[in-house]
Design brief:
Radius of gyration: 16 Å
Largest sheet: none
Number of domains: 2
Structural class: mainly alpha
CATH topology of the largest domain: UraD-like
Number of helices: 9
Shape: globular
Order of helices and strands: HHHHHHHHH
CATH architecture of the largest domain: Orthogonal Bundle
Oligomer: single chain
CATH superfamily of the largest domain: Oxo-4-hydroxy-4-carboxy-5-ureidoimidazoline decarboxylase
Helix content: 55-70%
Strand content: under 5%
Distance between the termini: 6 Å
Amino acid sequence: MISLQDLNALPAPQFVATLAGVFEHSPWVPERVAPMRPFATRAQLLQAMRAAVQAASPEEQLALIRAHPQLAARGPNRAGLTAASAVEQRRAGLDAITSAVLTQIEQLNAAYVQKFAFPFILAVRGHDPASILENCRRRLMHDEPQERRTALQEIGLIAEYRLNDMVG
């Protein structure tokens, strides 16, 4: 864990490197807020990063969404999983699901990608496999613009959890 004071004092490249994992495979987010330092609170830093995502082009937002792994990915699909994502999914019980639940998640993931052309994203902290399945089923009813907004909101929540774990 790094203090906010120490984070603010880092040279820009180290600041970006330290926060690069807050938004999955998207160091451009902390890169855009680095010139705004110092941040008075962790909440202010989070707000600035979320604002950078909201101000990004639709293409950049879509790339951010697509940078996220599918939930409960197995085999070669797990290769791009960051350490943070692996821990989050394990805590949600996705590493210990039955083959029947895995099949349901895989089918829902496939239907979701087919409909929206990006992975289902859920901040899984506080969820279990049953609530993850229910969320995916419910969100499959959304239209694409609504689901894109929801995915970005979930990414913002994931970022909040990660930032809270990382910055004291």
